[in-house]
Design brief:
The protein is an alpha/beta fold. The protein is built from 14 helices and 11 strands. The protein starts with a strand and ends with a helix. Bound molecules: beta-D-ribofuranose and calcium ion (CA).
Length: about 325
């Protein structure tokens, strides 16, 4: 079967690194594009190149650097979770490859206009994707769908109501959700189910390969960061969920939903406001997810929101992916 064609837009980032490793193994990655987010643009671009070198694909997967900062707001980064480099933990040599000369937004627009049936995956702030829609509005009709890690049906992480990727560039996120593109949203409510623990680290380590050790080091660092910031004992590999959803749709249960992004709220800027009134039957406790498309209330869905992850099969997929490298 032909692999699905994708562009992966990301800000590596420990969990972005897992997203790259899954995508390159299972999908036809036409390019990795980078955006300022977890760390400044130069760092995340270097990190994308490092990941591709570790898995032996830096020659066949080109990297394109995109926007260094959000459309309106100043850039916010996350060194407390990803370290100063954006990918602290594993000891990896400086990459020998460099990014392409073409800007990420030009690459996205050009490739979408040239290639049929392309899917966008976005695991960082949505700055590049929104800029691409503004630059070439016809891409909305051409892209099959955009699968994002971002937002939440429930609570946030950067603020009580906002998840990091949407919080960093809410104007870009609003542009994407209102664009007419079909959005698959892997929000925090879902990705918090993607927890890796010390046992997962051991599984990676026991592979005895470069990719396995790299994954183990990434996860150990991420667990440690979570422990010092939030007193947790696991690392949630948020971004790889967005790729896993495309690789094996049976891993995730999702429902259609209308999603808008709050831009003005003093407490809620960056919140993904999820309208799930249409999912509520006469007795929401009993009837919550029944026949969502034909229910009468709420705005017409512009997205699919992921709700439940099959955790064990997700971890198995990551392990078998790592095993396939080397
Ligand atoms: C998201 O924020 C980033 O720190 C992660 O890479 C992920 O994309 C989770 O909120
Ligand atoms: Ca990310």
């Amino acid at each position: 079967m032909d692999k699905r064609k994708v562009i992966l837009d990301c800000d590596p980032g420990h969990d972005d690194a897992f997203a790259i490793m899954l995508a390159v193994q299972h999908l036809d990655v036409l390019g990795v594009t980078t955006v300022g987010g977890n760390s400044p643009l130069a760092n995340v671009t270097r990190n994308a190149l490092k990941v591709l070198e570790v898995i032996g694909h830096a020659d066949d997967v080109p990297v394109y650097a995109g926007h260094s900062c959000p459309m309106v707001a100043p850039l916010v980064t996350a060194p407390m979770f990803h370290g100063e480099s954006g990918l602290d933990g594993p000891v990896v040599p400086e990459p020998t490859h460099v990014a392409q000369a073409e800007h990420a937004v030009d690459f996205i627009c050009r490739t979408v206009m040239e290639q049929d049936d392309l899917t966008l995956i976005a695991t960082g702030p949505l700055t590049n994707i929104a800029a691409a829609i503004n630059r070439e509005p016809r891409i909305v009709e051409r892209v099959r769908e955009v699968c994002i890690m971002g937002g939440s049906v429930t609570y946030g992480n950067w603020t009580p109501t906002a998840e990091f990727n949407i919080y960093v560039d809410p104007e870009a996120a609003a542009r994407v959700f209102e664009s007419g593109l079909h959005v698959k949203m892997c929000g925090l409510n879902l990705t918090r189910q993607a927890a890796f623990d010390e046992g997962t680290v051991e599984r990676f380590r026991s592979l005895g390969t470069r990719a396995g050790d790299f994954a183990a080091d990434l996860t150990e660092f991420f667990i440690g960061a979570g422990r010092s910031v939030n007193d947790t004992h696991v690392g949630c590999m948020h971004d790889a969920c967005a790729v896993a959803w495309l690789v094996d749709p049976t891993l995730i249960r999702a429902v259609p939903m209308h999603i808008d992004v709050e831009l003005a709220g003093t407490l809620t800027r960056g919140m993904t406001v999820c309208d799930y009134r249409h999912l509520c039957g006469p007795d929401p406790a009993v009837d919550l997810y029944r026949d969502p498309l034909h229910a009468p209330r709420g705005k017409r869905p512009n997205a699919e929101a992921a709700l439940e992850l099959d955790h064990d099969r997700y971890v198995d997929l990551v392990c078998s992916t790592l095993e396939a490298y080397d």
